[in-house]
Amino acid sequence: MDSGSNISVDSIKVEPTFLQSLTVIVASALLICVGYGLFKIKVEILLLIACGFIGLIAHLFGFTWKQMQVGIVQNISKGMPAMLIVIVVGALSGSWLVSGTIPMLTYFGLGLISQKLFLITACLSAGIVSVLLGSGYATIGTVGVAFMGIAHGLGVPLGEAAGALVSGAYLGDKISPFAGNANFAVSIAGVNIYDHIRHCMWTTIPAFGLGLIIYYFLGTSGAANGSLADSDALRKALEVHFAFSPLLLLPVFISLWLAAGNRPVLPGMFLSIGVSVILAIFIQHQSPVTVLNALIEGPDIHTGNKLLDKLLEQGGMIRMMHVTLIALLAFAFNGLLQTSGLLAPVVTRLFQFTTTPLRLVGATALSCFLVEVMTGAAYVTILLPAELFKPAYRKLGLAGKNMTRAIGDCGIVGVPLIPWSIAGAFMSGALGVSVADYAPWAVFCYAGVGFTLIAAATGVSMAKLKFEDETQAGS
């Protein structure tokens, strides 16, 4: 298995046993989970302490600091694309705010969306945009922020609103042909992307549908506590302080158009930001200095409405730096885990029990959970289980798309439920709601696990291996 560095497990002076690895991993997990959940210690500090703990264990196994540093740096380099996207999304959301794009979407959303249908509308809207953009980050950083403004105005519980938005945003990460996570999974597994997407529908449709049903009953239960006066006050303040124009939809259409052409994510974001800057200067009559500073620090807007001012204090690259710090520490932690060889004995032990489809899918799900809890990194959650279990699926005569579906249901969409993951930190920061508050309502992010296990237990939709080369269509 790829250890994430040039150091082989053979160079370990004392190779960790299964019991040693399990003890260290459980201790690290308890440190992070108890420290964050019970004592409310910042995740950054807990990850730093965990890095020190794993580093000490690695030293006892015979590794030098130079060897550990190689593993850390190489793993951080793997996470740089994701971190760059997060930072640029900060500038993107800042530009959409200062240009009036998000305020205009919020204004009309408050007039069109009812309390009862808000959660369904938010989830479906985020889902459609995420499939088109292929990025949960870009979806939450733009339309997600707008919908949270609407939630405030309508009095929708913010945890429920954020959960519905995160569910929708991660639909694209699982099944969009433009999504980095989905494409990374199929590239590792050697599976055709469109076969993967079609196969995922067996579990995606019921999991997403279950979420919509729950959101409908939540909406009709009368949990919302907003009033028409609150909504009208927000709309009036927005109308007074922003000029609205159909041109403000240009950044949205540009992002969707570029995504539909399967063009690179970052250049498309920069183009959308550039257009938003021009709109802010010529439609909102903001000075160039104010607009450019908003990309870094977020917009500084004072409307006289405290709730609206709080909603508009979003965006900006600086606000994403704490997310980047968490990502750096998470990838450093993962680098130390892999370099020390601590993950391999635990995960390979699972391999011995994968003698039936249910056991194999169950082991895939469990390994995804262990890796996402320990590393908080989506790409690592995809990489390690895919590398480990790919031969096992072939041994049982199962197509690789069964594995990529399981990884999608149990790994890709589950990462935003981990508070110390880069996804969890980003969603929480962008939406202004803690992971603990929105996680129970992000139904799609955990419901797929059950449907994947049901498929494995019943054999329904467990596709057999057809071709040796599964990258060809129809595999």
Structure description:
This protein has 475 residues and is mainly α. It has 22 helices and no strands. Helix 17 (357-375) packs across helix 19 (400-410). Residues 1-12 have low confidence and may be disordered.
Amino-to-carboxy terminus distance? 25 Å
Q: What structural class do you assign from the helix and strand content?
A: mainly alpha
Strand content: under 5%
Overall mean pLDDT? 85
Please describe the biggest sheet, giving its number of strands, its sense, and whether it closes into a barrel: none
Which structural traits does this protein have?
mainly alpha, 22 helices, 475 residues, 0% strand, globular, single chain
Question: How would you briefly describe this protein structure?
Answer:
The chain has helices at about 20-35, 45-60, 65-100, 100-110, 120-135, 135-155, 160-175, 180-190, 195-220, 230-240, 250-260, 265-280, 290-295, 305-310, 320-340, 345-350, 355-375, 380-395, 400-410, 420-430, 435-440, 445-460. With about 475 residues, the chain is mainly alpha-helical.
Question: SSE layout and pairings?
Answer:
Elements lengths: L17 H20 L5 H18 L4 H35 L1 H12 L5 H16 L2 H19 L3 H18 L4 H10 L3 H28 L7 H14 L8 H11 L4 H18 L5 H10 L8 H7 L8 H19 L3 H9 L5 H19 L2 H18 L4 H11 L11 H10 L3 H4 L5 H15 L17
Helix pairs in contact: 1-2, 1-16, 2-15, 3-6, 3-12, 3-13, 3-15, 4-6, 4-10, 5-6, 5-7, 5-9, 6-7, 6-10, 6-14, 6-20, 7-9, 8-18, 8-19, 9-19, 9-22, 11-12, 15-20, 17-18, 17-19, 17-22, 18-19, 19-22
